[in-house]
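Hi all, long-time lurker, first post. I run a small reading group and we've been trying to get comfortable going from sequence to structure in the token notation. Rather than ask abstract questions, I figured I'd post a concrete chain and ask someone more experienced to write out its structure so we can walk through it together at our next meeting. Sequence below, copied exactly:
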Amino acid sequence: MTNRLILFFLLIISPISYAQDWDLSDFFVYDAMLEQKVDEVFESLNDTSRAGQMIVPAAGRLGKSQDHLNNLLSKNHIGGILLLNGTKSGFTEMVNDFNQINANHGGLPLLYSADAEPSLIGYKIKNCTPVKKANLMVSRAEVRKFAASICKDLKDIGINYNYAPVVDMSPNEAISYRAFGDNADTAQIWSRVFIEETQKRGIVATAKHFPGHGYVVGDTHKKLVYIDGEMLEVENYRPLINAGVLSIMVAHIAIKNNETYNTNDLPSSVSRNIVTDLLKNKMNFKGLVVTDAMNMGGVASIPNCELKAAKAGCDLILMPIDEEKALKDIISEMSNDQGFQRQVYASVRKIIRLKICLGLL
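-- Answer (accepted) --
Happy to help. Here is the structure in token form:
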């Protein structure tokens, strides 16, 4: 047998292994090798570290202490960290420290997130490149330009997940300067431009605050607020879902006087009717659903609110009041309810898939 025939024979009978790179554009695309990689990572975790992937506490001036977060990292109890109120250099140093501790304890690479909206980044992360506030932008070109600028600063720090853009309309005074305006077409089109530019640059974009914060009265940081009747902004999300937005944030907004989507005086973030039935099933969103901060006045007083958010269908639980209790509640429910366990596993697989597509794994 000639050498060429021997080589041909070996190629036929031998499995070929090779490195494969994925990016965010692959997240929604079926890929057998990507599925296999997700399975391999998932199977390497126990149920505690699996459920821990859903927990995202905050660091920075308004977050938990570094010692507290270091302790969570040492147990593989969290999947990401929100960097909340600090400086660009301080957060860069913090990310490096957290990465070292996480690696020392064998944790999966972390999702680092920020509220880097055009209207907030200068306040949330000081010393970043100045950008126009969302309500002052005048063209798609400006939206694209400033989204690119924000991404550069986030990349410098090590942040890979942005809780932006705001898709809400502007009438609500707590939202007005953070929104692109009060025209639905502008909100949809400019949000899509921001999302496309952000995800093209390797950072996850998040459309918020589902199902719509613009026409409510009040501020969810302080109390539970209501959409009374029809949800006027929910259709703003459909073109963004169709365009491939990877993440949607659900607000602590209750729905009343709506026969189909009444939340019975509970915020949308803990309502299965809103998160699973509407967003995931009816609107066919297959990306990551993240809660708004769970220490906000609109939700924090609800007993076991983090578990309720997970049961509603949320994949990432942002800023739990007590991370250890939230994780313990989720694990306990998983052992009692196989359906919930399967749901958590599906969330964790999405998180792992996202980390692979970000190039973290």
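A couple of things your group might point at:
The chain has one domain: 18-357.
Residues 338-357 form the longest helix (20 residues).
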